[in-house]
Fold this sequence. Notes:
A: alpha+beta; 4-stranded mixed beta sheet; 14% strand; B: alpha+beta; 10-stranded antiparallel barrel; 13 helices
Amino acid sequence: MVPAIYFDGRSTHATRVDAWRDGDMLRWRGANGMQEWSAPWTAIEPSARVTGVPFTLHVHDGGHLQIDHDALPADWFPRHHLIEHVVDGLERRWTAALAGIVVIVASLFVLFEFGLPWAADRVSAHLPRAVEQAMGKQSLAALEGRLLMPTALSVERQSHLQSVFHHFVVDMEGVPDARVAFYGSKALGANAFALPGGTIVFTDELAQAMPDDDAFIAVIAHELGHQANHHMLRQVLRSSGVFIVAGLLMGDVTSMGGIAAGIPAFLVDSHYSRGFEEDADRFAFRALASRSIDPVAFVHAMQALERAHPELKGEELRYASSHPLTSARIARANAASLQFRAAKTAAAAHSNR
Amino acid sequence: MHDETMASGVYLPELDVIPARDTTEVHRLRFHGNAGDYFRIWIVNVALSLVTLGIYSAWATVRTRRYMYSNTTLGGSPFDYLARPLPILKGRLLTVFIFAIYAFAGRIAPALQAVAALIVAGFMPWLIVKSMMFRARYSSWRGLRFYFSDDYAGAYKWYLGVYFLMGIPFLLIMLVSMMGHPGFGMLLGFAAFTGIYPWIKGHQQEWMVDNHHFGGKSFSFDDGIGNYYGVYIKAVGVALVWFLPCIALFSTAAVLINKGNPQAFNPKMPSPYFILGVYAVMAPAYLGVWTFVHTRMTNLLYNQAQLGQYRFRSTLAYWPMLGLYLTNALAVLLTIGLALPWARIRTARYRSEHLEVVGEGDLSDFVRDAFAHGEIGATATEMDSLLGIDIGL
């Protein structure tokens, strides 16, 4: 006999009953013994087990029996809700809860570190060029007149740099629509960044800081690396992916979602950028070498940049597309330069022979 | 506003109810959940959701909601959450898909996103109805389900149409400013705004309550639109009391810190510390005002509602609620979310302990109604939980 409360599904009248199993029937009887009900065992739909929640045994006609959480005999419905039975077992253990925390931290790490970038790259690889170009146009339009002012470079200087640029990019693989645009920008200072769709924004301040054409081309080559690898688009996709996932995790705490989602997005983004920077550097070294320019020009450009931002000396220098100027990058540029010179000497020796 | 003829079959059983009972009984809602149990349920379900890439999240939602519903009792009987995981999963996938498109549209072209936002706004009332129908359909007490009428016309009237009236204050401001009295225009616009907004909010609550049904009876709502003016006028006062000192404090601090280097502050690219500071100061002030409106509006909602011979008494108080929300927010932030279950449990406890059902009867006189309780898709309810529509129930 199991104490239960019976609701017939037609009214909210509660009847205290005792229920028992009788072969393939479930029977229950009012506490005063006046009334008795029954239902075939197979027609009963029990609710899944949840800590502290009473069981509800739904009967065919909309009625139900409510049985206290601890009162249901274990052998009554052993084959129902098998998955939730396992989950319920976990939910009862503090060890499982601790393991849950570990699992959450680990899977969040894997998701943000590998899952999102992977998905974002898959999507960006299949996006039409028109989308990328539209994005570039939009963002340039948003910057013009606010952060980017008309250039103050002389016409001769501009056309000189343009011709150097065209000479460099002509027939280069992976950057079909590359163009460079000069802007004056007090707010951004010495700066360059690649917008999706092909435009490279180059500030007057940076153009003036460059010691020679090779340094200018080194910066351009780096930005072309961003462009060839669709970094801007991938970055955008990755960060919107973070927002979507963060929103899902926050679930119904929507009011806090805005602030909380911004923090991981920021952390993740600055991290992604570094990986992209290295890709762009590699592209730049290769592009420079292929045009017979010593990659040491990249070191000169970086040093000039550091001089242009004296307040950041010693710290990690970043410009708008957040380029970390670390000794590691300079070291890699120097290594590329050594390789370039070695190859050149070898080629010279070869042709002399 | 409900359709009397449609519900006529529903009212018949009330004839049997003996009207003359002179004892008014008070039935308090009780909450029996505890933070320890709920924490384990929550953390295990979040972990499983993540490991299954979100697929399990629908089951997780059902389990955690069942815990909350079933631990809330009225007259000794628990409420029951009856939704099935699979429809929720379907709704969730669809919602994620729609939201992903929306988010991406904004990255390509803001104009595209504006169009998408307009489309969503056009669907909003429909969404609210569907969502309310879902919630009602899968909430039950003592074996009877709640029901929400599919009053789309009413939803479009009170959740979209009336917002066009909000244009009136702006028109007033523009007209009077053009006549050369901008200050007077602002004042007039503000007056028109205070005249319209509480009226809208009051009617939204009325519509919401009027369309709910339970146990063969329809909820009804007192006509007390005047009460809403009181709430919102006081809310303006509360806002001033909160924001003025906060802004004063923050600007003095900002000026003191920036004294040494005047060129440091760039309004186009404020430093992250500045933004963080703004959040740290504004969040409590915002919470202070929001809690006031939320508390008073919830009280009004229940205290003006009636179901058969039963009335409701909601006695949420401002300071305890504010203390609750502030400590919750702090605890959740400091524990990176681990205190969320604890926060939910204590909020649910406070809220249910301050809600009573008052009436001459022992709550056993509700009967099954004649509404068709068909299955209802979960997409709408998933959408609105993501968009954070404040339905206020």
